[in-house]
């Protein structure tokens, strides 16, 4: 017994959560631009940096905003999340297996966490043994992931999502709710970050301090740089699109925010030149001169991020 959803795959992005959600959207026939999806779910504005730039930063935060906001762009998700460990005392693996098979039988696309490396993967089918998946370092062709081993890792988290289309919200409601969520995360108002991690403008300060003290994990810096520079690229694109869609008195401020996020991205690209990503656990060689250059770039990123957040507060107040 097996079932495949032909044509379902991930949309290659450093931010694999959005890459999988975009792949599911495309499979369902949605024409939502990736920049709009990135911004409408709030992810484009997120930054989550560990004190030592652990590579877990891009995924180790409470991502409920994506689940809650995706209906605004016509994607309703149901999910199952839990810590299973090796014994799976609550039967989460079986629940996930039944949930995903039922969705795929109905033609609904799914995605989940750590079907291979600790990233997100689209689930495009199943057989008697487990899940067929597509994602980073695996666009297809690997053996299926045994359903009884999902979550059997050092991290020990089981996380699966099933998607279906729904009626999207208005552009104004979409932008307002996305920016409100972005500000909550920047302020860590709802405890969305975990101990040892930093959000909002403070994240850039923590990043800079880690490099100044030579306390950073070099390949973690490289990976964080790729993810967060991609996010800021799409934050700039989303706010530019929002300025065009909403118009009137908000366009000037939104265009200013777009330029500020472009500055953040440019600064992070400079950090990436000092800390190029060669692969997991492959540390780039960085000297003192490179660290000073990265510190300067992160100072500029902090300044632009701080200004962007303050302008967004004013935009939210007027929406």
Brief summary:
Helices cover 48% and strands 14% of the residues.
Largest β sheet strand count, sense and barrel closure? 7 strands, antiparallel
Number of strands: 9
Number of helices: 9
**SS class:** alpha+beta
Rounded radius of gyration (Å) = 20 Å
Order of helices and strands: EHHEHEHEEEEEHEHHHH
Give the domain tally. 2
CA-CA gap between termini: 51 Å
Shape descriptor reads globular
Report low-confidence residues grouped into runs of 5 or more. Answer: none
Structure description:
The chain has 319 residues and is an alpha+beta fold. It is built from nine helices and nine strands. It has two domains: 3-31 and 75-165, no CATH class; 171-318. The strands form two sheets. Strands 1, 3, 4, 5, 6, 7 and 8 form a seven-stranded antiparallel sheet that branches. It has helices spanning 16-27, 34-40, 64-69, 92-105, 171-187, 200-212, 218-246, 251-274, 288-318; strands spanning 3-4, 48-50, 75-83, 110-113, 120-126, 130-134, 145-146, 157-165, 197-199.
């Amino acid at each position: 017994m097996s079932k495949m959803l032909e044509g379902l795959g991930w949309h290659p992005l450093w931010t694999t959560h959005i890459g999988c959600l975009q792949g599911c959207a495309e499979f369902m026939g949605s024409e939502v631009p990736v920049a709009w999806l990135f911004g409408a779910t709030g992810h484009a504005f997120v930054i989550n940096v560990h004190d030592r730039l652990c590579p877990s930063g891009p995924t180790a935060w409470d991502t409920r905003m994506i689940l809650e906001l995706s209906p605004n762009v016509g994607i309703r998700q149901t999910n199952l999340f839990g810590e299973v460990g090796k014994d799976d005392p609550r039967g989460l693996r079986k629940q996930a297996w039944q949930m995903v098979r039922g969705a795929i039988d109905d033609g609904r696309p799914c995605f989940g966490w750590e079907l291979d490396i600790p990233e997100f993967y689209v689930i495009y089918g199943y057989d008697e043994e487990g899940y067929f998946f597509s994602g980073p370092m695996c666009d297809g062709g690997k053996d299926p992931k045994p359903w009884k081993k999902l979550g059997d890792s050092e991290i020990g988290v089981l996380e699966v999502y099933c998607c279906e289309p729904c009626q999207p919200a208005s552009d104004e409601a979409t932008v307002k709710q996305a920016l409100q969520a972005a500000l909550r995360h920047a302020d860590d108002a709802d405890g969305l970050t975990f101990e040892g991690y930093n959000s909002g403008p403070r994240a850039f300060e923590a990043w800079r301090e880690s490099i100044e003290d030579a306390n950073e994990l070099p390949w973690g810096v490289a990976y964080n740089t790729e993810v967060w520079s991609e996010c800021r690229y799409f934050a700039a694109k989303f706010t530019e699109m929002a300025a065009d869609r909403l118009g009137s008195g908000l366009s000037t401020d939104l265009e200013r925010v777009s330029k500020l996020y472009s500055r953040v991205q440019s600064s992070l690209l400079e950090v990436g030149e000092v800390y190029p990503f060669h692969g997991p656990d492959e540390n780039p060689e960085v000297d003192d001169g490179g660290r000073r250059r990265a510190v300067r770039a992160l100072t500029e990123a902090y300044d632009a991020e701080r200004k962007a957040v303050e302008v967004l507060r004013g935009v939210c107040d007027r929406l």
